[in-house]
Design goal:
The chain has 255 residues and is mainly beta. It has one domain (42-234): Sandwich (Jelly Rolls). The chain is 9% helix and 36% strand. The strands form 2 sheets. Strands 1, 2, 4, 5, 8, 11 and 13 form a 7-stranded antiparallel sheet that branches. Strands 3, 6, 7, 9, 10 and 12 form a 6-stranded antiparallel sheet that branches. The chain has helices at 3-19, 23-29, and strands spanning 34-35, 51-52, 68-74, 81-87, 97-105, 111-116, 119-120, 126-135, 148-157, 169-174, 191-198, 205-214, 221-234.
């Protein structure tokens, strides 16, 4: 190998890695890309301190969006619950973040689900979808007890948002990490969970679903985590402000 290539090749690898290091700034590094998620920083509504969803810390603004339109909790028993809301105690950027609290949960399938609004996309291309997270040293979530997972689902739709296009996309990340391994999310700083998602031909809208869910196993999980700067980085859609067309009634066979 030419001596010059020994220098250039590692430099190319380093440059390629740095391009994917931070979706919140990727739009500045990739010509013609942008973050399509509205209020990915969880800045609205404005709260003071740790505020539960029911007390005004609802990132969906009671379903009005604009970025998030549904926040649901699943409680299948009485042995601990998952709660969530907004807080100004911790933020990666801006002033606020989303907090998720596992309150001594020792049963499976206790969950929080956060669903985005319909996001206009360009079909037949690729996006990077991610979210940043961290734990809190004062109320630490560990991987020693009951497993829990951060789950990502992305669904695609045609102009009529009732018409699915292609297959849903799934990814799963144990939180704060896998048992027996170094934690992925720690109290020392923010860590990014993200993945590349292809859009199928004919897709006009995407909908992002984030889910925090306890799994099967022994023990309980307890503590709080923070999440911020949710993003979907990629090419802008052909019609940026497009909204889903109303579903059409089937009038075939009628007079």
């Amino acid at each position: 190998m030419h001596p010059l290539m020994r220098f250039i090749f590692p430099l190319l690898l380093l440059t390629s890695f740095s391009l994917y290091a931070d979706p919140s700034t990727a739009a500045l590094k990739y010509a013609g890309t942008e973050n399509l998620v509205k209020d990915g920083g969880f800045e609205t509504p404005t709260v003071t301190g740790r505020t539960l969803t029911a007390d005004g810390g609802d990132p969906t603004n009671n379903g009005a969006g604009p970025g998030w339109i549904s926040m649901k909790f699943r409680q299948t028993g009485t042995n601990g619950i998952v709660t969530a809301g907004l807080t100004d105690e911790m933020a990666r950027n801006g002033r606020q973040s989303l907090f998720v609290r596992f309150n001594h949960v020792n049963t499976p399938l206790q969950a929080l689900t956060l669903i985005s609004n319909f996001i206009p996309v360009a079909s037949g291309t690729e996006y990077e979808i991610g979210i940043w997270g961290r734990t809190d040293s004062r109320d630490l979530v560990t991987s020693d007890g009951r497993p829990a997972y951060l789950k990502l689902e992305v669904d695609f739709f045609a102009k009529d948002a009732n018409e699915s296009v292609g297959d849903p996309f799934y990814r799963v990340q144990p939180i704060p990490g896998s048992k027996g391994h170094e934690d992925y999310f720690t109290p020392d700083g923010w860590s990014l969970f993200y993945t590349k998602v292809p859009t199928p031909p004919g897709a006009v809208f995407a909908q992002i679903i984030w889910r925090w869910e306890t799994g099967s196993g022994d023990g309980e999980i307890n503590g709080i985590m923070y999440f911020d700067d949710a993003s979907m980085i990629g090419p802008p859609p052909p019609i940026p402000n497009m909204t889903p067309a109303p579903a059409q009634d089937d009038t075939s066979g009628t007079q």
